[in-house]
Specification:
The protein is 53% helix and 5% strand. It has a three-stranded antiparallel sheet, with no helix packed on it.
């Protein structure tokens, strides 16, 4: 359902009043004070509230009605908790997002049913698709606000990567590659592997790399990985060492681990650089590019990304894993400079895509 809200005069505020039963009046209120508490006592739209919108919850159906009921229940619990003491706002934020996600799934099912129904109104499915996109954007914005305002600590890199993976990046299709007879001979094998690394999808990248026939053959022998040993290790053994590097890649889960993380990160980067130096002639070109990506090589990140949004993600994953909130603006501005677009504020890390899943 889409509502055209009331027009607001300069300096005015959007206000609301509960009406009779399940009616909610939304209107522009020039006299409202910012942050004013509303008691919801009025049973009518306030006098002079021209252009108000009356929303009647009993008119809602399906996923929308469930969403309204769940959001109201969560809000009631939040209000009750606020009177008793400290409130865990992140917990309630997650509950709100879970309700919106359930509504998104319901709207997706309704849209699919409308497209199958030959008797449905011609534009019914398109209307549902537009409403679905609005809810996806709502969850996307709510999640980002949760990261920046409610997540503890100042290091937002890992949380930001999860946000992008959930809302912006569609997982790469690896099934046609892993099921191929010789996956590495497929033209998309290494580009897909690189894209998974750039997007921080390490588990999926390892799964795809594990389909490489020479790595599979080496693993079948049960021989240990000894890429740093003397002699000439096989390609399968070298790929096994690359897989081990990805598996053991350090992650920063809290500020308390910062000093330890930096030490582990430096050692891990040196291991990755050593593998590339010692076996530059033995490793496949795609594996060498992967090592450059993992080490945060600027040229490799630029060549592997097609726009400023994907470059931001790659930089956070591979070049600046200890990113602070205060440093994000500089990263975004750097990425935009590499892929010029219209001037955008840093707050637009919701990206320039027309839908949350159409950005990278």
């Amino acid at each position: 359902m889409s509502l055209r809200g009331p027009a607001l005069a300069p300096g005015g505020f959007l206000n609301f009043r509960w009406g009779a039963g399940d009616e909610l009046f939304v209107y522009g209120d020039e006299g409202a004070r910012e942050g004013a508490r509303l008691d919801g006592a009025d049973a009518r739209a306030p006098a002079g509230a021209g252009g108000s919108v009356a929303l009647r919850f009993h008119d809602l159906s399906g996923a929308r009605r469930r969403l309204a009921a769940q959001l109201h229940a969560t809000f009631a619990r939040l209000q009750a908790a606020a009177t008793e003491g400290e409130v865990q706002l992140r917990q309630y934020s997650r509950e709100y997002r879970a309700s919106v996600r359930e509504c998104i799934d319901g709207l997706a099912a309704e849209e699919a049913a409308a497209r199958r129904d030959s008797t449905a109104r011609a534009d019914a499915a398109d209307d549902l698709a537009a409403e679905l996109e609005q809810h996806e954007w709502a969850e996307c914005i709510m999640h980002l606000a949760e990261i920046f305002f409610l997540e503890p600590g100042e290091y937002v890199g890992e949380a930001l990567v999860r946000w992008v993976q959930l809302h912006v990046v569609e997982p790469a299709a690896t099934a046609p590659l892993t099921s191929a007879l010789v996956p590495e001979q497929h033209a998309d094998f290494w580009p897909t592997f690189h894209r998974l690394l750039l997007h921080g999808r390490m588990a999926e990248a390892r799964e795809l790399l594990g389909a490489h026939t020479q790595l599979r053959a080496h693993a079948a022998l049960g021989a240990p990985v000894r890429a740093g040993a003397d002699g000439e290790p096989s390609v399968g053994e070298l790929l096994g060492y690359l897989d081990l590097l990805i598996e053991n890649r350090p992650t920063l889960s809290s500020a308390d681990q910062l000093l330890d993380f930096r030490g582990h990160w430096r050692a891990w980067l040196e291991d990755a650089a050593m593998l590339g130096r010692r076996h530059e002639r033995d490793l496949p070109a795609g594996a060498l590019t992967a090592l450059r990506i993992l080490r945060g090589d600027e040229r490799a990140l630029l060549e592997g990304t097609g726009g400023w949004t994907s470059l931001v993600l790659a930089l956070v994953v591979h070049a600046q894993p200890t990113l602070r909130r205060s440093e994000l603006d500089a990263v975004v501005n750097y990425a935009i400079a590499q892929f010029p677009v219209r001037a955008l504020p840093c707050a637009c890390l919701l990206y320039t895509s027309p839908s949350p899943r159409d950005g990278l």
